[in-house]
């Protein structure tokens, strides 16, 4: 559920019931308590409700329209913080990151975005001769302990919420490098062929990352499929490889086949690892 959809849903519940508890919002919207509190704080900011101990009470439904406009203007507020994302689907992200290691060779110049999945990859990188560019503060800190890995921060405007660097300066620096492999993630993947982000700032930076890289590898756990997000990054055909824990949707599988994307599925440790290589119009199984 997108932030603007959650806000509308919370407003509707409040208008019917008069009050709601934080834990009720978290349960109904399937979000963390921290995200629920932040949603209520934003709704209060726009005059929709008043927060009370442990929840909120309804004020004025008409003010909700202001919120929906503000939700699109204040795009940097959309999406969850890095700390929230790093706690979600941790097992799947770990397996995806381990599989991604097999695509990395000594001497590579890598580009890692600020996604939590790329951070999982950075934590597992061996201490070998590599150049790694990133806009993630956490990845920079993680790689500082690896003597043979040369780390280059993109710089730019710092986002305290996402704990990364964005903006024109970060985009400009990317144009100065020839990058072998880009590892990145996204907020959602739609059936319309769109790999998307929760805000325009990160979408625009990732578009430049794609332009600057020879081989593009998307790291996306299964929760991303079917999730509609605000800003478009690119179409399937603009990436080379997708690594995921599971791809059960036949429609997605066929769309990726048409786009000639190499899809690697990584099964849980208790099961045999499965890798599926998809060729245009004719999926086949390898490994």
UniProtKB/TrEMBL annotation:
- Keyword field: DNA-binding, Transcription, Transcription regulation
Transmembrane ranges, per UniProt, are none
- Chain ranges of the HTH deoR-type domain: 3-58
The molecular function terms in GO held by this entry are:
DNA binding; DNA-binding transcription factor activity
- Asked whether the keyword Transcription regulation is assigned, the reply is yes
Q: Name one Pfam family in it.
A: HTH_DeoR
Q: Which PROSITE patterns match?
A: HTH_DEOR_1, HTH_DEOR_2
UniProt cross-references to PANTHER family, sorted A to Z: AGA OPERON TRANSCRIPTIONAL REPRESSOR-RELATED, HTH-TYPE TRANSCRIPTIONAL REGULATOR SRLR-RELATED
Name listed for the protein in its UniProt record:
DeoR/GlpR family DNA-binding transcription regulator
Q: Which source organism?
A: Rouxiella sp. WC2420
């Amino acid at each position: 559920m997108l932030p603007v959809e959650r806000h509308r849903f919370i407003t509707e519940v409040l208008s019917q019931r008069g009050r709601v508890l934080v834990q009720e919002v978290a349960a109904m919207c399937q979000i963390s308590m921290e995200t629920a509190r932040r949603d209520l704080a934003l709704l209060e900011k726009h005059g929709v409700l008043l927060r009370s101990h442990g929840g909120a009470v309804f004020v004025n439904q008409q003010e909700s329209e202001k919120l929906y406009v503000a939700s699109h203007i204040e795009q940097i507020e959309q999406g969850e913080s890095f700390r929230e994302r790093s706690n979600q689907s941790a097992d799947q992200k770990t397996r995806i990151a381990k599989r991604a290691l097999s695509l990395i060779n000594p001497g590579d110049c890598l580009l890692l975005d600020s996604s939590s999945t790329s951070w999982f990859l950075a934590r597992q990188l061996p201490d070998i001769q590599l150049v790694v560019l990133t806009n993630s503060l956490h990845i920079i800190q993680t790689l500082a302990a690896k003597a043979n890995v040369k780390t280059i921060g993109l710089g730019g405007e710092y986002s305290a919420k996402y704990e990364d660097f964005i903006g024109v300066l970060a985009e400009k620096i990317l144009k100065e490098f020839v990058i072998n492999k880009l590892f990145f993630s996204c907020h959602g993947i739609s059936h319309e062929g769109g790999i998307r982000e929760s805000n325009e700032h990160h979408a625009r930076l990732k578009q430049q990352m794609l332009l600057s890289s020879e081989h593009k590898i998307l790291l996306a756990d299964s929760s991303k499929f079917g999730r509609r997000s605000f800003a478009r990054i690119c179409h399937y055909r603009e990436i080379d490889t997708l690594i995921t824990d599971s791809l059960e949707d036949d429609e997605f599988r066929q769309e990726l086949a048409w786009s000639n994307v190499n899809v690697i599925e990584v099964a849980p440790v208790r099961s045999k690892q499965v890798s599926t290589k998809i060729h245009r119009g004719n999926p086949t199984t390898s490994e």
